[in-house]
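User: Please fill in residues for this 143-position structure.
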């Protein structure tokens, strides 16, 4: 199987900072892959919150999101009490979804991972894929 190789963006729209906690470590005594996915999730929630949106409401009161796919390229280790920076951007907007791009670094600048997620707009009441609200699109365009 061919490896998908991600490249960092030149600019990111949002920064979320966190610290590696003891519960984030795996048996190798470094940041575990499951914990990294959780950190990316927290960064996404914080980014959406900055836009007055959430995973359950992109701004129209009825459209949320679901995660369609996730790609992670692990590039380095991170250890207990490391300060991490998760830089995130929304791009590749389509009528019913978009991509989110993440660069995770130790605050000294060493890249730990690059990640990309596919996001689909979803109406949880109707249980079906929906269009992205225009109000959300305009907020992204203004960043």
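Assistant: Residues filled in for all 143 positions:
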């Amino acid at each position: 199987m061919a490896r998908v190789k991600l490249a960092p963006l030149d600019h990111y729209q949002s920064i979320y900072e966190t610290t590696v906690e003891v519960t984030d470590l795996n048996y190798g005594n470094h940041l575990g892959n499951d914990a990294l996915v959780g950190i990316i999730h927290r960064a996404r929630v914080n980014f959406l919150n900055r836009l007055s949106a959430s995973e359950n409401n992109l701004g129209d009161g009825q459209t949320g999101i679901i995660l369609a796919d996730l790609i992670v390229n692990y590039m380095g280790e991170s250890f207990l009490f490391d300060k991490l920076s998760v830089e995130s951007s929304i791009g590749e907007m389509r009528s019913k979804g978009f991509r989110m791009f993440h660069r995770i670094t130790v605050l000294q600048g060493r890249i730990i991972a690059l990640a990309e997620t596919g996001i689909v707009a979803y109406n949880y009441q109707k249980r079906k894929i929906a269009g992205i609200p225009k109000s959300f699109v305009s907020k992204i365009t203004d960043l």
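For context: The CA atoms of residues 25 and 31 lie 5 Å apart.
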